[in-house]
Amino acid sequence: MTKKLDTSLGHPQPAPALLIAVDRAIAELRRGGVVAVLGRDGVLVHALSAEAVTPEALAAMGAVTMAVTGRRARVLGLGAADDSVVRLQAVGGLTADLVAGLADPCLSGPRPDLGTISVEPAPANCAVAQAVALAKLARLLPAVVVAEGGAVGVDQISVTADAIAAYQVNAARTLRVVSQARVPLADAENARIVAFRPADGGIEHLAIIIGEPDGDQPVLARLHSECFTGDLLGSLRCDCGDQLKGAIAEIAAAGSGVLLYLAQEGRGIGLVNKLRAYQLQDDGFDTLDANLQLGFDDDERIYQPAAQMLRLLGIGAVKLLTNNPLKVEALAAHGIAVVERVPHVFPANDHNQTYLRTKAVRGGHLF
To answer: What rounded mean pLDDT belongs to the chain?
Structure first.
């Protein structure tokens, strides 16, 4: 007898205070506010996104240094380990223009004078390093200016470095079903969409369930990161739209399965930064190096949300529609058995040939 997936609404859980604190800090940083970050060692820093820096903001913060990822420092020629965060200081102090030039490779204008810049590594998981991580969570450029010491201001948003470090994993663990509806699709009339939300009220992930998958058997599944340009606009720069529509059609043809539509635009860097990466690609960088120029890893996605969604849907084993072996490894690492990798290849066009070649040669994708 076929076992239907249990997609009834879950009971709300109180959002852990640490999740709420990070969510508020993300919003504050995006608004251009200064967030207080407390390290495990008791060191307090006041952090402002590099994108929000103005002369007035710098003057109000007092003595500041800048923090960027090691990847950004390396492409600037300043030297650092790729997985580190470093503090930058300039002879004569930082200016708003200098901060902008160090943070954003897409800006026009003269290149910053790197001879005036000194570099100091920041300890892993310290307040400074996690302030940069907070900028990533906010889908901003991974660069901040920080002032050390002092006290948390009246009405200032504050958060601990440990809470930032654990945020994505903890948010994934609190995902629950918040709504669902039958949504007939052009290639899959027997389909429904289930929405999942973390306890802090963050961005929803979606599951497109086609037919009636049997959770006692491996389920045909695809993990699809949202792509506004490819999925909605039909961009020819990637193969995302083809993969989305092709997966829906293939799952429908197989009779049942699930497509997880994950809120991880641009391999986890967000739409605005993806457009910056496109600008860099037009300047000659490939899709991976463009991310590195911006200071991100080549892929910032995590797969705890996907694994949690599958568990909530009663699915413990999948046949995964993917060309990316890392997705197979990531799901397995989070407790979902991948019994088969199902190739998911579509023809290239004149605009995405280089993109697909880079994914194959440098990203290990199998085409």
So the answer is: 91
Q: Are 158 and 152 in contact (CB under 8 A)?
A: yes
**What pLDDT, on the 0 to 100 scale, is given for residue 61?**
95
DSSP lists the bridge partners of residue 191 as 210
Give the CATH H-level superfamily of domain 17-168: DHBP synthase (3.90.870.10)
Q: What is the pLDDT of residues 95-124, one digit of tens each?
A: 999 999 999 999 987 788 888 899 999 998
Annotated active-site residue in 72, 74, 139, 301: 301
Closest CA to 362 of 268, 275, 267, 288: 288
Question: Stretch 52-70: mean pLDDT, rounded?
Answer: 95
Q: What is the pLDDT of residues 206-219, one digit of tens each?
A: 999 999 999 999 99
Spell out the domain ranges in the chain.
17-168, 174-264+301-361
Q: What's the CA gap between 55 and 77, in Å, rounded?
A: 26
Active-site annotation holder among 299, 311, 341, 357: 299
361 contact partners, CB below 8 Å, separation of at least 6: none
Q: Is 299 a catalytic residue?
A: yes
pTM of the predicted structure, to 2 decimals: 0.91
The pLDDT, as a whole number, for residue 3 is 44
- The partner residues of 344 in beta bridges, in order of sequence, read none
Whether 216 is a known active-site residue: answer no
DSSP H helical ranges for 89-228: 96-103, 127-137, 161-173
The span from the CA of 123 to the CA of 224, in Å, is 34
State the Cα–Cα distance between residues 240 and 50, nearest whole angstrom.
31
Q: Is 269 exposed, middle or buried (0-12, 13-18, 19+ CB in 10 A)?
A: buried
CB-neighbour burial class of residue 341 (10 A; exposed 0-12, middle 13-18, buried 19+): middle
The dotted CATH code for 174-264+301-361 is 3.40.50.10990
Residue with the bigger pLDDT between 345 and 335: it is 335
